[in-house]
Amino acid sequence: MGGTPRCTWCGRSDGTLTHHLYQVKGRFGRRYRSIHLPVHPRHKPQLDREITRFNRFGLLVTSLIILLSGAITAVMMGAFLHGGVTAEVILFTLFAVSAMGVTYLIFPFATPTTVDIIGMKWSRRITRGLGGVLVLIPIVVLLHDDVSILVSTLT
Ligand SMILES: [Zn+2]
């Protein structure tokens, strides 16, 4: 994004920003690339910590999300092609959705575009919020009468 430089952590342009060279891994790769990021001196510790976490766990998180959404798609397609959605299919999907939610809660890595627009601090909050919703959905669904009756036919 062009224009006034904004703090990579809080997304604000006020005050004095310093530029620092970071080594950041790609979401899908192991290779580091060097980027200069503007940040408020007081927000540098948070940014340092988050980039370290991303470099360590970014690929793991991307793999987990791809694996879980792929599994959901495969199970759903299988269910629609062969005789419909069973209680097992519903339970598996709910489990996979909540596992995605837990992943986002523990590792709230947002897309670079989001970080670019609103800063890392708010991207993290939004990603955590999304994770919380994904964890809640299965609970709400399981509390729904029709589903709990369907699931009880499993046992
Ligand atoms: Zn800042």
Brief digest:
This protein is mainly alpha-helical.
**Poorly predicted residue ranges:** none
Q: Over the alpha carbons, how many angstroms does the gyration radius reach?
A: 20 Å
State the major sheet. Answer: 2 strands, antiparallel
- Can you give the mean pLDDT? 90
The total beta strand count reads 2
Question: Quaternary state, please?
Answer: single chain
Q: So how many helices?
A: 5
Tell me what portion of residues adopts beta-strand conformation: 5-15%
Strand order of the largest sheet: 1-2
Ligands bound here? zinc ion
As a percent range, the share of helical residues equals 55-70%
Elements, N to C (H/E): EEHHHHH
What is the terminal separation in angstroms? 55 Å
- The backbone outline, from C-alpha atoms, is elongated
Backbone structural class: mainly alpha
Question: What this model shows, in words?
Answer:
The protein is mainly alpha-helical and 155 residues long. It has a domain at 56-152. The protein is 63% helix and 10% strand. The chain has five helices and two strands, in the order ββααααα. The protein has helices at residues 44-81, 87-106, 112-118, 120-143, 145-152; strands at 18-25, 32-39. A hairpin with a 6-residue loop joins strand 1 and strand 2 (32-39). Helix 1 (44-81) runs antiparallel to helix 2. The model has no long low-confidence stretch (mean pLDDT 90). The chain binds zinc ion. Zinc ion (ZN) binds next to loops.
